[in-house]
Amino acid sequence: MLNIAFIAHDRKKEEIVNFVIAYEHVFVGNTLYSTGTTGQRIMENTKLSIHRFLSGPLGGDQQIGALIAQNEMDLVIFLRDPLMAQPHEPDITALLRLCDVHGIPVATNVATAEILVRALDRGDFGWRELVDLHRPRLGV
């Protein structure tokens, strides 16, 4: 069982809902998290249960980032709108940076999300053990 987060900018919410509907069978049995409205829209259109944080601009991105920093997140699907400036861009950058620092796969578009979810569906997601073996220990 993995911890998976869903985030989508406003103009990408329909796209993430359709994506999750298409792969609902893969997400069942995992622990799912999301920013507020994205999670609500997904739950309204699927049978999935999602722990919803605040909306992204109100701190939801940072709440998911806290799980990443505590090594409690395995995969992030964050459908970003690259053509629209976001008022909370520093939070978005911080979230993506945390994914890089902690070796967490993050998909920022449907093409990449599909590759990651298909790997998850095949059971080909053993990267977590490899990342933990090679992660530098702080304070050592």
- What is the helix content? 40-55%
In percent, how much strand structure appears in the residues?
Answer: 5-15%
**How are the strands ordered across the major sheet?**
3-2-1-4-5
Task: Please compute the radius of gyration using only Cα atoms.
Answer: 14 Å
CATH class: Alpha Beta
What is the 3D form?
globular
Overview of the molecule:
The chain is an alpha/beta fold and 140 residues long. The chain has a single domain (3-134), classed as Rossmann fold, CATH 3.40.50.1380. The chain has seven helices and five strands, in the order βααβαβαβαβαα. The protein has a five-stranded parallel sheet, with helices on both faces. Strand 4 (75-79), helix 5 (89-102) and strand 5 (106-107) form a beta-alpha-beta unit. Helix 1 packs across helix 3 and helix 4 packs parallel to helix 5 (89-102). The protein starts with a strand and ends in a 6-residue tail after the last helix. The model has no long low-confidence stretch (mean pLDDT 88).
